[in-house]
Amino acid sequence: MLMQITNNLNQDIENAPQWFKDAVELRPVDKIIEHPLGDISYSKWSSSVDTKNLIVLIHGTGAHKKWWDPIAPQFLNYSNVVAIDLPGMGESGFRKKYGIKDFGECITSVIEKEKLNSDIENIHIVGHSLGGQVAGYVASEKQDLIDNIIIIDTFIRPPDYNPAEHQGGPLRMIKYYSDKITILNRFRLMPKQDCKNDWFVRYIAEYSVKETDQGWRWRFDDVMFTSLERLFGYKFSFNCPALFVHGQNSLLTSGDFLKNIKSTYSDTMDFIEVSDAAHHVPLDKPLEIVNIIKERLF
Predict the structure, then answer these.
(1) Are 23 and 81 within 8 A, CB to CB?
(2) Disulfide engineering: 88 pairs with which of 28, 153, 224, 269, CB 3.0-4.6 Å?
(3) Could you tell me if residue 289 is left (phi over 0), alpha (psi between -120 and 50 degrees) or otherwise beta?
């Protein structure tokens, strides 16, 4: 981050636009679903109007639900909103194994709980990066449950993708740091990119760390990066309206990657490019993403 980081988050983001500061002041209700494999944490913002809509926001790899804090309140005139911590990330519990299918079951459990308790009928899922894979999986496996999906800059592997040819390692191995400012200064977006909205990056960094007896560490379970079971040989089969949003300068959806996605899903998905955005489109162009979602869903 370019800014001088202190222990005072409000001071560090004082140059953020007013809409951003207003949004993060609108605190959601934090909820937990107890699960024998690891509890699921999520936040809920209740709509300001009487509505049966629910927007489900899913973050990317190593991220957490509070990436959506500035975004979620922008929809409250139209919908209830939840943002979910996937297992092993944010405040959800660590698990022995991780996989897209397991993540999908967690998303479904939150949706079913909200449908039961809040008279919800219309389910719209928005997923960024890894969250887009989860969104596509849930919409494919639970076709009667999901009404719309919006996938934001997700690397969708073709059905013939060979994982043996694309070996990867952990994004960040867990280390412990002596103080909070030191670890906050280590925060980086992955894949690496610049982001002019340093107030947004500073905000999400604040909630990406936690203090333990051994010192300060990242919230995510680093085991997940080497053990995550992804969707190989799987083609999405959702039948609801679907939109794929990608950043103009994104590394994950550039060149042949995007061509492959379009050739595979052009009959089932619409596509929008966001100018001057890289992979982290919601951080680079938050209000543009808000407008895209509103225009698509409402």
Answers:
(1) no
(2) 224
(3) alpha
The alpha-helical segments, DSSP class H, found in 8-98 are: 9-12, 18-25
Look at residue 164 in the predicted model and tell me its pLDDT.
57
Which ranges in the chain belong to alpha helices (H)?
A: 9-12, 18-25, 100-118, 130-141, 180-184, 198-206, 223-227, 256-265, 281-284, 286-297
Nearest-5° Cα angle at 265, 225 to 162: 40
Q: What is the predicted pLDDT for the residue at 170?
A: 47
Paired strand residues for 82: 44, 56
Sequence-distant (≥ 6) Cβ neighbours of residue 151 within 8 angstroms? 127, 132, 135, 136, 242, 243, 244, 245, 269
End-to-end CA, the chain: 35
Q: Which residues of the chain have pLDDT under 70?
A: 1-2, 158-173
pTM (global) more than 0.70: yes
Phi, psi of 126 (to 5 degrees): -125, 120
Cβ neighbours for 69, distance < 8 A, ≥ 6 positions apart: 23, 24, 28, 43, 83, 203
Which residue carries 């225009």 as its tokens? 295
Amino acid letter, residue 240: C
Domain boundaries, the chain: 17-167+230-297
Residue 3: the pLDDT is: 80
Return the pLDDT at 157.
Answer: 75
SS3 183: helix
Task: Round to whole Å and give the CA distance between 262 and 68.
Answer: 27
Q: What are the tens digits of pLDDT across the range 145-199?
A: 999 999 999 998 766 666 555 555 545 568 999 999 999 999 999 999 999 999 9
pLDDT, one tens digit per residue, over 223-239 is 888 888 888 778 999 99
Which CATH number, 1.10.443.10, 3.40.50.1820, 3.90.1150.30, 3.40.50.20, labels domain 17-167+230-297? 3.40.50.1820
